[in-house]
Amino acid sequence: MGSSNLFILALFVALSLSNIEVGLAARKLQQLPINLPQMPSLPTTLPPFPAIPNLPTLPTTQPSLPSLPNLPTAPKLTLPPLPSFPSIPTIPTTMPSFPFLSPPPAPSSP
User: Where is the composition biased (Low complexity) (predicted)?
Assistant: First the structure.
C-alpha cells in the first residue's frame, strides 16, 4: 500500500514538473520576435499569350450512309376477348324514411 502511494506521488511530481517546463517553453516561444518570410516581387508585365494553333478544316460533304436492310414483316397478333365481368349493383342515393313512434302523452296536471 505504501509503495503504491509513493509511486502515485512520484508520478504526480513528474507530471507537475513537466507541465511547468511546457509552460515555460510556451512563454519563451511567445516572446520571440516574429520573422515573416519576404514576399517575392510580382512581375509588372504579363507574359504574352501563346499563339493559337491552326485547326484542320472540316469536310463539307458527309459520306453517304448505307441503306438499311429490309426487315421481315411480323405476324399480326390478336388478343382474346376480355371476359365479361358481373355488373356492379348500384348504390341508392336516397335515404329511406324510418317510421318514428310518437312519444306517450304527458300526464295532465289538475
Answer: 54-72
